[in-house]
Request: fold
Amino acid sequence: MKITSIKNRFLLGINYFLYCLLYFVLARLIFLTFHFSKTNSLEGYDVLKTFLYGLRMDLSATSYIVVLPFLLLLFSIFIPKKTVHILLKTYSIFIFITINLFLLIDVVLYKSWGVRIDSTLLNYINTPKMMLASISTKLLITGTLAWITLSYIVLSILIHRLNKWFAPLNQGNWWELPIFLIWLGALIIPIRGGFQSIPLNQSNVYFSKTMFANHASVNFMWNFINAVSQETDKSNPYQYYTANRAKKIIEKRRSNLLTGNDSILKTSTPNILLIIWESLSAKVVGAVGGENNVTENFNKLAKEGILFTNFYGNGDRTDKGLTSILSGYYPQPTKSIIKMPNKTRSLPMLIKETQKLGYETSFYYGGDTNFGNMVTYLRNGGVDKIIDGDTFDKNVGRSTWGVHDHIFIDKLLNDLSNPELKQPFFTTALTLTSHEPYEFPDTYKFGKEPYDNLYRSAQAYTDKVLGNFIKEIKKQPWWDNTLVVIMSDHGHPLPNHKGYFNSYKKFHIPMLWLGGALSKTGIKIDSYLSQVDFSYTLMRLLKSDANKFTFGKHLFNNSADQYAHYIFNEGFGIKTKNGYFVYDHVSKKAVIQEGDFQKLDSLGKSISQEAYNDYLHR
Reply:
C-alpha cells in the first residue's frame, strides 16, 4: 500500500512532465511548418537536429512549468485528492492557454522580427492596440481561432489524462515528504541544463551556420522567461575589451571621417523637411539597385538630387530608427531607449539643436504618438508642434495604424502652403501606411498575393503619394531655400532574399536629398553610411556644433574607411567598401566574414560595447 502510494504519485508526475515535454515538441513542429519555406531550405538532417539540440531547452522549459504541479503532488500526501485535482486542472488550464498564446505570437512575429519571442514584446504590451496593428484582420481572426482550437485540443487531452492519472491516487504518509522534496529539488538539474558550471543558454542549442535552424532549436517559452529575468541585469552583455581600448578602436577609425564637403548647401539656414518612409527597403528601389517598378517616383527624383546608394538603417524597428536619425544614437539589440524617458531626456536631439539656430520645429505622424513613448521623446526634444492621428477627423480614412498616407500628406502640404508659415522650419514627417498589414484605399499595383506583392503594393502606394507631394511643394515660394531629405526608418525582410536572415539586404535602405537649397544635384554618394551619421552631418552643414552626436560621421567624406554598423536582436553587422562582418552574440561567433573583415571584428564589437555602456549610464 505504501509503495503503491509513492508509485502512483511518481507516475502522475512523470506523465505530466512527459505531456508538457511532448507539447514543446509539437510547438517546434508548428513553428517549422508555419515557416515552411525556410524549413524547406535547411540542409540534410538539420530539421531533425532542431528537435535533438532543442530537447535540452525543452526539458528546461518543461521543468519550469511542472514546479507547481510537483509541489501540489507533494501536498497531496496530506491534502484530499479532490482538492489537488481541482487545483492542478485550474493551473493547467491557465498555463496552457497562456503558453498557446505565446506560441502563436512567436510564430507570427518571427516573420517580421526574425527572432524568437523575448523581452522585446514587453516594450509593446502596454499598447496592445498598436501591437495588433501589425497584424491583418484575417490573420488576427485566424490566429484567435487557432488559439482557441489548439487550447481546446491540448487541454481536452490533458484533462482526460489527468482524470485517469488521479483515479488510483491515495492519500500518503508523512514519511513520503522528504522523498518528494528531493524529487522536487531535482528539477534544478534540467532547469539549468545539466551539471555544467555555466547554466543553459541559447548557444547550447545553436548547431548550424543557418540561423533559422538555430532559432528553430530555441524553446520559445524558455527564451522569453530567460530574457525577462535578465531585464534587471545592469551589466554589459557585450563587454569585449577594456573601455579605453574600445574607445581607441572606434576613434582611430572615426577620427578620419569627421570632416567632408560642407559646401553641399547654398545656405547655412535652409528650411529642412525630413520625410521618414515607413519600412522602405532598398530591395524595391531601383535607383539603389533594387526592383525597378515599385518606387517609380522615387527613382525619377533620385536623378534630381543627391542619392546615397549604400545607406543603412541601424536597427529594425521604427523606435530604433527614430533615435538613430534624430539623435545620432546607436540602438540596442533588445532594448528601446525611446521608451525610457529617464534616459531619452539626456539624448542629443536634432530638433532641439535646430531650435537654437532659430528654427520652427514640427513633427507629423498620422498615427498614435503615444505608441512606444514617441511623444515623450519628442517633448523631451522640445518640438514646437506635434500633429498626429488625433488631429484628424474621426471619419477620415484610416488603417489599423492610423490615417492613410495620402490624407496625412495632404494635411502636411496644406500646413506648408500657409502664407504665414514661419521660416526657417525643420519639419519631420513619418509615414505609416506602408507598415503591416498594408491597408490602403487605392489600387494594389502588384496585388495582395503572395505577401511579397502586398508589401510591394503598399510601397508603390506611398511612392505615389510622395511623388505627388514633391511635385506640389516644388511650386512653393520656399522651395528654393529648402532641403528635403527622404529616408526609410528601417529596412525589411520583404521581399524575401536568399542567405542569412539578418544579412545586410534587410538593413539596406535608400536616402535621397532634394530641394533648391542644394548646390550640387544629380550625384550619387556610394560610401557606406548609416542613419546615425545624419544628425552629425546636418549640424556641420548648418555651421553649428556637431560634437554632441558622438557616434556620427560626415556623410560627405568619401573615404574607403566609411562604415555602416547595424544591430539585430542577437548580434551586429558592419559593412564597408572592402569588407563585411556579421557577429552573433549568442554563439559568440562570426557568421559572415567577407573581404577585408579583420578590422571590422574589433570595430563592430567596440561599437556594440560602447553604445551599450552609454545606454546603461544615461
Summary: The first strand starts at residue 271 and ends at 277. Residues 278 and 432 are 6 Å apart (CA to CA).
